């Protein structure tokens, strides 16, 4: 089976590798160069725990507060557009108790596959930087800790994947480099760190070894479609015929889906990060840490650490103000006082694909029999890429929608032009 995949970020690369591994002929199209955007600057954390969508109970208030005060976990950028207003309304509705529970169950379809799929990469012989140092969500006081743990209450299986830490001694036993005042947390021992550039480089090499083709600087101009089936993709680099098509173009997937007659309720969510280089391992994080107070994520890597922050919903361009980078570094220093800041790379910014309910969108484009979407991964593109590839491959080979993946399907939105 010949498959054209649009988008060579980590999700598109994982899909190309999985399909090539199963014997399919793959052409991967990328409008720029592979591995850029959020695939490049993500938090470098792979988690088997965080199945909770961004639109969670209470997040509407946080987003509204961001209009008056920056530095919130979720920041909202106003846009004067009926489609954007409808998107925000859908997102607000997704924060209700029942939709949030459904979204969590949907996302957990992918989460339970996460660690085993990365283990499979290692068994396949892919060589990339990976560490099994776990992750910890930390809190400054008991009230914050109890509020954080309460999210797990309806989800016993997800709760079983973390260990609550209710003393400063327990927290610092996991990570002694943390600031002394951090006294509460929960720990996911099996989470791991994956340096994204090394992973994507390994995937590209493996795809080419399989006989797959990567075509860069190939922007999609149109699709050739008839009778509910796409037969070719028209690009600036030529026309590519296909038996199956996958749109894995991140924030660009909304426009591409529109070309096929589907109104995908997805907008961009800006994010930013900084890389800090140092040689003294003991000075920095011993595990990946997410902070409740400052809303930053810190991940140890071979060359130092990556610190990231922010979900700026509706941001149109990948940019970040210097004051936000300065605040990120200040929050990092408050969390890890011993980390030297002598060698800090310029801040990175990117746009992540946010679906209206916060859940990845994986499955057939409504009205078409051979065109699939694989987008909407928000902050978990790296984490979910291999699992998304499995879902896509299984769905394609079944030649029909699979009930097991119905909650991830684009048809859940039922929006057409």
Annotation field: number of helices: 13
> Which consecutive residue ranges, at least 5 long each, have pLDDT under 50?
none
The secondary-structure class comes to alpha/beta
Can you tell me the CATH architecture of the largest domain?
3-Layer(bba) Sandwich
> Roughly how many Å apart are the termini?
30 Å
Count of distinct structural domains = 2
CATH homology-level superfamily of the largest domain: FAD/NAD(P)-binding domain
Top CATH class of the largest domain: Alpha Beta
- What's the gyration radius in Å? 21 Å
SS strand fraction: 25-35%
Averaged pLDDT, please?
A: 93
| Major β-sheet annotation | 9 strands, mixed
Fraction of residues in helix = 25-40%
Oligomer: single chain
CATH topology of the largest domain: FAD/NAD(P)-binding domain
Net shape: globular
How many beta strands in the DSSP annotation? 21
Please describe what this structure looks like:
The protein has helices spanning 10-21, 38-41, 59-66, 82-94, 97-111, 114-124, 142-150, 156-159, 168-174, 196-210, 253-259, 322-335, 381-398; strands at residues 2-6, 25-30, 45-46, 75-76, 130-131, 135-139, 163-165, 184-188, 192-194, 213-216, 220-226, 229-235, 238-241, 244-247, 266-277, 288-291, 296-301, 304-313, 348-355, 361-364, 371-375. It is of the alpha/beta class. Strands 4, 6, 7, 8, 15, 16, 17, 18 and 19 form a nine-stranded mixed β-sheet that branches. α1 runs parallel beside α10 and α1 (10-21) packs parallel to α13 (381-398). The mean pLDDT is 93.
């Amino acid at each position: 089976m010949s498959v054209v995949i649009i988008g060579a970020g980590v999700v598109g690369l994982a899909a190309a590798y999985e399909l090539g591994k199963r014997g399919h002929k793959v052409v991967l199209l990328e409008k720029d160069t592979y591995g850029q955007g959020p695939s490049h600057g993500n938090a470098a954390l792979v988690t088997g725990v965080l199945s909770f969508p961004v639109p969670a109970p209470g997040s509407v208030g946080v987003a509204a507060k961001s209009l008056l005060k920056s530095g919130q976990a979720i920041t909202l950028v106003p846009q004067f557009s009926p489609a954007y207003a409808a998107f925000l309304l859908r997102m607000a509705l997704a924060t209700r108790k029942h939709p949030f529970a459904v979204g969590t169950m949907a996302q957990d379809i992918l989460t339970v596959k996460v660690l085993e799929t990365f283990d499979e990469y290692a068994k396949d012989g892919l060589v990339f930087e990976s560490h099994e140092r776990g992750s910890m969500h930390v809190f400054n006081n008991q009230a914050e800790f109890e509020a954080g743990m309460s999210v797990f209450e309806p989800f016993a299986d997800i709760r079983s994947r973390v260990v609550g830490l209710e003393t400063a001694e327990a927290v610092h036993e996991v990570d002694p480099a943390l600031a002394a005042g951090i006294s509460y947390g929960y720990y996911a021992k099996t989470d791991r760190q994956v340096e994204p550039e090394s992973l994507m480089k390994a995937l590209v090499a493996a795809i080419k070894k399989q006989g797959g083709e990567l075509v860069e600087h190939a922007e999609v101009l149109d699709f050739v479609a008839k009778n509910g089936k796409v037969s070719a993709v028209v690009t600036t680099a030529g026309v590519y015929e296909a038996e199956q098509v996958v749109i894995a173009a991140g924030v660009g997937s909304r426009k591409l889906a529109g070309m096929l007659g589907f109104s995908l309720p997805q907008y961009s969510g800006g994010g930013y990060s900084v890389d800090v280089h140092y040689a003294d391992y003991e000075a920095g994080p011993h595990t990946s840490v997410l902070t409740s107070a400052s809303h930053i994520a810190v991940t140890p890597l071979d060359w130092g650490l990556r610190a990231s922050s922010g979900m700026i919903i509706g941001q149109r361009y990948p940019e970040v103000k210097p004051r936000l980078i300065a605040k990120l570094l200040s929050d990092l220093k408050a969390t890890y006082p011993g980390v030297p800041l002598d060698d800090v790379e310029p801040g990175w910014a990117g746009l992540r694909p946010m679906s209206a309910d916060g859940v990845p969108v994986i499955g057939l484009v409504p009205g078409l029999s051979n065109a699939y979407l694989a987008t909407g991964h928000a902050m978990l593109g790296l984490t979910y890429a291999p699992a998304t590839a499995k879902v896509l491959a299984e769905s394609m080979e079944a030649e029909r929608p699979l009930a097991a993946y119905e909650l991830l399907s684009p048809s859940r939105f039922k929006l057409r032009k």
